[in-house]
Amino acid sequence: MNERIQKLAEQAEEYAFDELNKLQGPVEMSISRRVFEQSFREKFAELIVAECVEQLVKEGDAWEQFSRNPPEGQETNAGHALFAAYRLKEDAVSRLEEHFGVEE
């Protein structure tokens, strides 16, 4: 598992422990295990999707920056880069969020 995925897993684990700690009174081990596992899975998936969205936005920002200040000889590609930036930052992000049911 790469370092970034490991960090996301650790964040999800912390969240799951927090959710487990919210349970009041004596709770059966099987229930607490289910609460922990469900909380962990949901949070881990949410964090991974958010990380993917963040990477798409960063890539779109880079293409947008390229379109505003293209290197010499690349001026004709600036319009295409701006279009790519828009598609990444708007369309791809929206479709990814919709696909995974991410709510703002």
Short description:
This protein has 104 residues and is mainly alpha-helical. The protein contains three helices and no strands.
What does it look like?
- With 104 residues, the chain is mainly α.
- It has three helices and no strands.
- It has one domain.
- The protein has helices at residues 3-21, 29-68, 78-100.
- Helices cover 79% and strands 0% of the residues.
- The model has no long low-confidence stretch (mean pLDDT 84).
- Helix 1 packs across helix 2 (29-68) and helix 2 (29-68) runs antiparallel to helix 3 (78-100).
Question: How are the elements arranged and paired?
Answer:
Blueprint: H1 3-21, H2 29-68, H3 78-100
Computed over alpha carbons, the radius of gyration is 20 Å
- Outline the biggest β-sheet: none
Number of folding domains?
A: 1
Q: So how many helices?
A: 3
Termini separation comes to: 28 Å
Broad structural category: mainly alpha
Query: Percent helix among the residues?
Result: over 70%
Task: Report mean pLDDT, rounded to a whole number.
Answer: 84
Percent range for β-strand residues: under 5%
Q: What coarse outline follows from CA principal-axis ratios?
A: elongated
Contiguous runs where pLDDT drops below 50 for at least 5 residues: none
**Record field, number of beta strands:** 0
| Series of H and E elements | HHH
